[in-house]
Amino acid sequence: MEGRRRTYNRHERPRNDFMSDYETYLWGSNRYVNYNSSSSSTYGEGYGSLKVTGIDMNIRYNTETHRTKDFDITNAKLYDSRQVLVVRRGQKFYMKFTFDRHFNPENDDVRIIFQFGKRPLPSRGSHVELKLSSHSSYGESKWNLNTESIDGASVTFSVDTPPSCPVGKWHVKIDVQQHGRNANSNVLRFGYKYPIYILFNPWCEDDQVYMKDGDLLKEYILNETGKLYGGSAKKITFIPWNFGQFTGNVLDCVMFLLDELSNLPDNKRGDAVHVSREISSLVNSNDENGVIIGNWSGHYDDGTSPLGWTGSASILDEYFKYKKPVKYGQCFTFSGVVTTVCRALGIPARSVTNYNSAHDTDGSITVDTYFDRNFEEIGELNTDSIWNFHSWNDVWMTRPDLPPGYDGWQAIDSTPQEQSKGIYCLGPMSLKAIKSGRVYLPYDGPMAFAEVNADKILWMSYSPGKLRAVKTDKSFVGKLISTKKPLTNSASTDWMTGLDKDREDITDQYKYLEGTEEERIAVEEAKSYRANDDSEDDNKKDVEFELSADNNTFIGETLQVSLKVTNQRSKKTRTVVGLINVKTIYYTGVPYKEVVKGKLPRTAISGKDEKMFRIDVPVNLYLDKLTDHFFLSVTCSCMIEETEQTFADTVEVRLRKPHLTIEAPDTGYIGQPFKAETTFTNPLPVPLTNCYLRAEGPGRQLPITYKLQGINQGQAVKIIVEFTPVKAGEKEIIMNCTSDQLANINATRPIYING
Predict the structure, then answer these.
(1) Which of 160, 413, 500, 649 is catalytic?
(2) Burial 184-205 (b: 16+ CB within 10 A, else e)
């Protein structure tokens, strides 16, 4: 490499060099000569002292043993010319130096300096000096250097980093001094042109993120694809997702976020608690100009629909390229990116979806909906909401900041609905603490607990200032908490039943079984307000109501809504009056547009008799009012005239979508192209406009997008995509078709690539 030589006087310091006592001594004695490596084979020159002519980071061996070989930036033969060292802390890695003459450990002193951050200092753990001289090993600040072999002009040595080492880009400098002949001989500094990336190490027993079951790390660290769950508790669906944590600029983007946008001091960069909390803030753009702009409006013309993405790599690549928040995302998008960021850093992570997820705005751990005497919702009072689903993340670590017993999975949320200490972030909050109701433990316990445990209460206003709780549901919130099961990758899903062999239900990790004594104790531990103190007397409820809607309705079909009223416990006639309202909603539970609204006919029901009310909602009434997740809400409120018994309930329906099909071979080979074919038929009575197909798969660092012309009613389209794999192993093909009328029509197919 061609060196740049510069000699400093005793009063001058390099602009960005922050020195240890050793460096200060050298500057004071005017014995410092600086060399920066660039492109030639010689790192420096000067005055007969030992000079570095080559540095071999043993990238292939080190990345294999550190399980980092899948990072694109470690292999110059993949997508660009970069070839850098990525290692995990708490584990030995090897380097080899070649000098311009034989290395003599009796006369030649070599110091290897590792520096991290904007202001490296030993007191912060961000400046480490390891000396290689006549001794075979040298240790400082739990770092250790060992000479492995000396072969003439070449020296191979190993470096052990502590399992608490700050995670980031470490710059390597080599100081060489020849002693024994001239006490005032110069010290030559040689700089390696690339940083070394040091990550968390979940395979190291002493690391904070250590996970004992190594097989699980194949999923929570090494798996580049997975599923983000959505839909509703009655009809669970998934979005195939390419996490792509080893792809292209992803790791550099993650380091940029931590280096340039986070508020973490250097000595906190090795603490998974602080790093994961910072990640939950940095992925959203609310406070620090972070990665993604959230958008729940349904209008995405100046960006990409949240349902149009197929993975994290293209989002992080765009952000890293322009250093501006990417448009747009919703909770599942944020969760997918957080999984990518954490896995890239070496923190075990999984995306989690909670169904019927509560947003409690007043800290009561209840979600309250208010109706007036005319059965209309009182909008200004209805500030709480229940999301059909909400996605966040679990990260694995020990919690040295908490009492014993709260290690393991911790919840973090990059789409929090409320601020935490003035910043939009949530967690990490121990799942064990959430389950037991220990909401006082850090961080953000009340918010996390309410999302999975809040009681749902419907209130009726009978007169100004007077409210009565007409229904309390203690089991509605926090259903079917889902994540992808480790080490599975089913090729297909039963779309009619929604059965997904890859889905793991982890509800029992967040809460006790509904209705058990343990569950109620946990809730009462977390709150002092009892929702049922003002509820209606059950003795008055002699009429039963059952509101339902057909959850197997496909978009384009007529939705059937029914209300069954049974005069169950009275021999006397009961007269029912009420209101049914059908409207489209966002998946966050926020109303969008009214579809059907009407009063029930005043109906008398004899003792022990029942009446069925039915409403049909044809496609022409709802199609142009749908939001991108296809949710409709059916609200019914009724009263029995004779007893003033009241009923109120809401059911929500997610219309089912068509799906793509993918035909592709079961196996492929590195460097050999193969084709994948996808087909899709428009099921709607209108043409599809602004239609795009996005495809990801082996050999494509970023997705490819095809613009499709208007697809008419009943028209079938076929797209053929070619892939050329560059890496071996289990891979996945992901296709996603999005239009103005239909969003996120997707399919996924696994394929094994041979070396």
Answers:
(1) 413
(2) ebbbbbbbbebbbbbbbbbbbe
From the list 401, 399, 418, 421, the residue with the least C-alpha distance to 409 is: 399
Catalytic, 390? Answer yes
- Quote the tokens at residue 14: 């390099």
**Edge-to-edge strands, sheet with 137-140:** 52-56, 93-99, 154-160, 143-151, 137-140
Name the amino acid, one letter, at 219.
E
| Paired strand residues for 53 | none
H helix runs in 404-444, sequence order:
431-436
Main-chain phi, psi angles of 716, to 5 degrees: -105, 140
Instruction: Name every residue whose Cβ is closer than 8 Å to that of residue 687 and which is 6 or more positions away in sequence.
Output: 710, 711, 712, 713
Tell the burial category of 673 from Cβ atoms under 10 Å away from its Cβ (0-12, 13-18, 19+): exposed
> For 392-483, where are the alpha helices, taking DSSP H only?
431-436, 445-453
Average pLDDT for runs of 10 along the chain of length 755: 33 38 42 38 48 94 98 91 95 95 84 92 90 56 87 93 96 80 68 95 98 97 97 94 97 97 93 98 92 95 96 98 97 98 98 94 81 80 89 98 97 89 92 94 93 89 79 92 91 58 96 84 64 47 93 95 93 94 94 94 94 95 96 94 90 93 96 96 93 95 91 93 95 95 94 95
Q: In angstroms, how far is CA 44 from the centroid of its own chain?
A: 45
Q: Does residue 299 carry a catalytic annotation? A: no
Please identify which of the residues 165, 204, 253, 331 carries the catalytic annotation.
Answer: 331
- What tokens appear for 673 in the block? 């192209």
Please answer whether residues 320 and 292 qualify as being in contact, where contact means their C-beta atoms are separated by less than 8 angstroms.
no
Coil, helix or strand at residue 665 = coil
Per the document, the length of the chain is 755
Q: How many CB atoms lie within 10 A of CB 569?
A: 12
What's 257's DSSP letter? I
Query: In 3-state terms, the chain is what percent helix, strand and coil (to 5)?
Result: 15, 40, 45
DSSP alpha helices (H): ranges in 93-203? Answer: none
pLDDT at residue 181, rounded to an integer? 52
How far is the C-alpha of 137 from the C-alpha of 144, rounded, in Å? Answer: 7
What is the Cα–Cα distance from 663 to 641, expressed in whole angstroms? 61
* One-character DSSP codes across 20-82: -HHHHHHHHTT-EEEEE--SSS-----TT---EEEEE--HHHHHHHTT-TT-GGG-TTSSSS-
Pick the catalytic residue from 390, 394, 500, 638: 390
- For 697-739, the three-class secondary structure string (H helix, E strand, C coil) is CCCCCCCEEEEECCECCCCEEEEEEEECCCCCEEEEEEEEEEC
pLDDT, position 68? 98
> In angstroms, rounded to a whole number, what is the distance separating the alpha carbons of residues 754 and 75?
18
User: Tell me, what's the pLDDT at 96?
Assistant: 95
Closest CA to 428 of 444, 417, 405: 444
What is 114-145 written as a DSSP string? EEESSS--GGGT-EEEEEESSSSEEEETTEEE
The pTM (predicted TM-score) of the whole model is 0.90
The reported pLDDT for the residue numbered 384 is: 82
| Under 8 Å between Cβ of 274 and 372 | no
- Please return the burial class of 230, using the count of CB atoms within 10 Å of its CB with bins 0-12, 13-18 and 19+: buried
Q: How far is CA 131 from the centre of its chain?
A: 41
Q: What are the φ and ψ backbone dihedral angles of 676, each rounded to 5 degrees? A: -120, 135
> Which residues have CB under 8 Å from 237's CB, separation 6+?
229, 230, 231, 498, 654, 657
Cα–Cα distance, 230 to 691 (Å, whole number): 22
Q: Which residues of 713-750 are buried (b: 16+ CB within 10 A; e: fewer)?
A: eeeebebebebebbbeeebbbbbbbbbebbbbbbbbbe
Rounded Cα distance between 53 and 99, Å, is: 5
Cα dihedral 339, 256, 347, 454 sign: negative
User: What is the helix (H) or strand (E) element at residue 250, kind and residue range?
Assistant: helix 250-256
CA 414 to chain centroid, in Å, comes to 8
The verdict on whether 253 is a catalytic residue reads no
